[in-house]
Amino acid sequence: MTSQTIPLRSVVQAAVWAPSVHNTQPWSFVIEGDEIRLRADTDRRLSVSDPTGREMFISCGAAVFTLRTALRALGWEAIVHVLPDPDRPVLVATVKPGDPVDPDEHTLLLHAEITRRRTHRAGFSGLPVSEPLLDAMVRHAGDEGARLTLVDGPAERVLAALTTAAQLTARRDRTQNLELRRWGRPPGSGYGDGVPADAYPNAPRRTHPHFEQRDYAADNPWGNSDEQVSAATTGQVALVTTSGDAVADWITAGQALQHVLLHASAYGVGAAFHTQALEFPPLRSFIADYLCAGERPQLIIRLGYPLTETAGVRRRIEDVLDED
Ligand SMILES: Cc1cc2nc3c(=O)[nH]c(=O)nc-3n(C[C@H](O)[C@H](O)[C@H](O)COP(=O)(O)O)c2cc1C
Known about the structure:
Elements: H1 8-15, E1 27-32, E2 35-40, H2 54-73, E3 76-82, E4 91-100, H3 105-111, H4 131-143, E5 147-151, H5 153-172, H6 174-183, E6 236-242, H7 247-266, E7 270-273, H8 281-291, E8 296-304, H9 317-320, E9 321-323
Helix pairs in contact: 1-2, 2-3, 2-7, 3-7, 4-7
Bound molecules: flavin mononucleotide (FMN).
């Protein structure tokens, strides 16, 4: 197969299933010749809660990892340049097919999860995630140049409390609330972005410790019923951290995140995100100083076996891709 006949469109079609903050999908793609270019779409940045674009670039990093995985699963080495042009700071990455390869089992395993993986927004079953599986996730984050640190005991309770503090503060802030409302979608919405009402329970069971969910329903009676769930647990709390805190580090965090999430998903493990506290600089500094051994915290997640399923939506490929 020549590079002209490699179905790069299908590679982009896979990448749009990467996770992104509030499902903003803050990206656009160009296919020119045999190159895919991924740009951050700054119009979709959360100007109130993400003024530096950190979460936007993490989201784009997750899309970069997905491009790499999809291309490799098709049988091509991915040649990736992250931030290839200092004069174009929103050009996140270029990805090109290199030599043909036989996709390895791990790549195929991850590839099968790209569209299946979903964000979870409730407690988990009591079944603990096994140590070998957690070890593999830690290793994969490291492979991408980031760190996945498992958080237990007092540190777990501190993170839960900071999440509550951030959530209560955000709820009282009019501009934060308005921004969140823009991305929470009512039932039956035909939007291809934002968080649909069937992507979270309307009254999630409390866990111990409890990690507050974002209020995507904004006090409306939206969300799925999870009445069949009688008890739920927190699951394994973890932090994704990087050694630096520049745009390149945020993209690294996104690639590591997606590697971890896809691997987890292949073994039936889902992830819930609680990034509220990291949107408040003093709370983020506190978490960096006391819980991250000098690393920079990029994401707070919980891992476990979901008891319910959630829905996912994406924009149409035509709305995000320019082809020559
Ligand atoms: C940087 C980042 C931050 C996120 N923060 C949260 C969060 O605080 N709460 C939450 O419920 N989901 C969070 N998410 C998950 C997104 O809402 C989710 O990826 C998006 O809605 C798409 O849904 P899907 O992951 O099920 O495909 C975050 C995702 C990213 C990449």
